[in-house]
Amino acid sequence: RSEFDNFRTIYNKVEEGYNYLAAKQFSASQIAWYKAQRRPTDVFNIVFPVFNNVLGDFYTNGSSIKVFPKAGGNYAIAEKIQALLEHYSYEGEFDFYIGETILAGLIQKGYVYPRWTDELEIDGSLVIKNVDEFEVVFDSAAKEAFLDDARFVSRSRWMTKEELFKNFPKHKAKLKEYFENKEDIDLRISPEEFEEINDVEFYDHATGKYRIIETHEMDYEQAEVVYDSVKGTFEIFTLQGKKRLLYFATNPQAQLLDQTVRIKTVTTFIPGLCYQIEKKNADIQDGRYDIIPFSAYNYGRRCIDHFGIFQNAKGPQDSYNQWHNRVQDIINKQINAG
């Protein structure tokens, strides 16, 4: 079994949750059965108000982040940082993206891409985005809520041949060669020989699309680490050239050390073609993954087992629909018989 097999259940639960919120709560087979019995299939949505109230609280509570300086810090800098956060919150549609993540997490599991930088990245930026919950796969054995103990975190999406050529122009010629030998490649990735690689998972025969995977992995390596005696922090140091010189000119208290630390590598590949596009060290090395999961309840032993409100709301919703539809059926039959 591949990790995609483990996450198929998660994807199905999320899709089912969105359908229930949209009052699509009967399957095609259920609707056909009710229709044969001449019974109604009205939906009495008790799930929607619960989600509506929770999201409404988030969007209307007006809470904001307050930045305070550390002991001995500078209040003027704290105020500037707060102004920056407020500006980004408005210009970057922070509430919208976090709202999407919260909704997915209330159903089952959502993901956010929070990337912020400080003086280590002199031309740093603030980026906070929702990540499509149907694109993420991570180490199913991970137990930490923020995936700190995960072996890997992957994000994938589907692309046609034309989209592959457009997004990876340097690989166009080589990719064309691989497409011409697709039958030979299929033999190499058949499920009978390699259980972890399933052609159905990585190539959609109906649409002709290939799954592109970007995998982030952590491994221990020797690297340069900068120690800031003022802030009391250790950070992996990646700046080079003029940025490196400028950093030490503006941070004379910083000390450069060699230590064994967790290094994050990023690999982009097309498993359906057995083709690796790129493998490199991540631009930002902070010992954390770039995608953080969110679920309403972190009660599962593993992160993949965490769940949302929908898991406990589905049963009462189904029972409520069945009871009301049965009552409607009885009333209709009594009226017609009378």
Quick recap of the structure?
It is globular, with a radius of gyration of 26 Å. The protein has helices spanning 3-21, 28-36, 47-60, 75-91, 94-107, 161-167, 172-180, 182-188, 199-202, 241-250, 310-337; strands at residues 110-115, 127-131, 136-138, 152-159, 203-204, 209-228, 233-236, 254-270, 275-281, 292-294. 41% of the residues lie in helices and 22% in strands.
What does this structure look like?
The chain is of the alpha+beta class. Helices cover 41% and strands 22% of the residues. It has helices at residues 3-21, 28-36, 47-60, 75-91, 94-107, 161-167, 172-180, 182-188, 199-202, 241-250, 310-337; strands at residues 110-115, 127-131, 136-138, 152-159, 203-204, 209-228, 233-236, 254-270, 275-281, 292-294. The strands form 2 sheets. Strands 3, 4, 5, 6, 7, 8 and 9 form a 7-stranded antiparallel sheet that branches. Strand 8 (254-270) and strand 9 form a beta hairpin. The radius of gyration is 26 Å and the shape is globular.
Name the descriptors.
338 residues; alpha+beta; globular; three-stranded antiparallel sheet
Segments where pLDDT lies below 50 for 5+ residues?
117-124
Structural class category: alpha+beta
**Which bin fits the share of residues in helices?**
40-55%
Rg of Cα set: 26 Å
Q: Describe the largest sheet.
A: 7 strands, antiparallel
Number of strands: 10
